[in-house]
Write a structure and sequence with these properties.
The chain has eight helices and 17 strands. By secondary structure, it is of the alpha/beta class. Helix 8 links the parallel strand 14 and strand 15. It binds zinc ion (2 copies). One zinc ion (ZN) binds next to loops.
Length: 310
Amino acid sequence: MITSLIVLSSFGQTLAHKDSINVNEPIIKVTLLGTGTPQPIIERFGPSILVQAGGQTLLFDAGRGCLQRLNQIGQSYDKINALFFTHLHSDHIVGLPDLWLTGWLISRRKVPLNIFGPVGTADMIKYLQMAYAFDIKIREEDDKASEEGGKLVVKEIQQGSIYDEGGVKVIAFEVDHYPVVPAFGYRIEYNGHSAVLSGDTRYSENLIKFAKGTDLLIHEVAIAPDTLSKSDSRYNILAHHTTPEQTARVFNAVRPKLAAYSHIVKLYGGTEQEILKRAQANYSGPVIMGEDLMSFSISDIVSVNAWQKK
Ligand SMILES: [Zn+2]
Ligand SMILES: [Zn+2]
């Protein structure tokens, strides 16, 4: 059920607040399944974003709990056309065994899942298949699970257009998450509209280049006290991500219809309110703090749908 609906049109302008649905049929729908980080908190599951357009159902990253979040919105694993990894940090991949094996068992999927990711993805999948070989064999023999449905087909990617099905294009672009190389963000295009997902990155000029003109920019963010010193063991966490002020620079350059935060890193007591305050001091366009199961409908306008339990 959708309750609070914020309707946004062109840059910086809020059109209306409504308590109803169907302002416009979405051309692209984006759902934040998990907006968290490695922190094992119940409010923000691991990073994972669902994008639906043109009959394609695409998943970006498979963080902790992504299958449970999919189940909450009634999205069956067997309807997912492809999975895209931004990079191989564990918070973005630990949900895969559950998604894949439990999803296969429950949904009775009958076709392989296509997986796209950086170099190293093929090895990871090969070893996961070995690690779970006992379960895979017994599910096929005992539970009569489809052999094809349990397969994972991997393609390691480089920057550029990597997927084109049903008019939906996915473009991978390199971001700066050094020393994690390569790490990708994604631009998803359909019918003249687009959404861009930053993945994990520090301030990235390449992201700005690929995100230009997008309707919706989902960007990561990290916050820490100004006093955090370089000798602090967590300094590198901040250094591998983007501060609120830096995201404001990105948003000012990209000028999306709507910017939203996901993958929210909070060090030493930083808060969501502080992130928004620091960003909005440097950026006057629409920006919103993402929540798990918040969704966005992109048509000629971008609307935000807060999740409410049925
Ligand atoms: Zn991460
Ligand atoms: Zn990362």
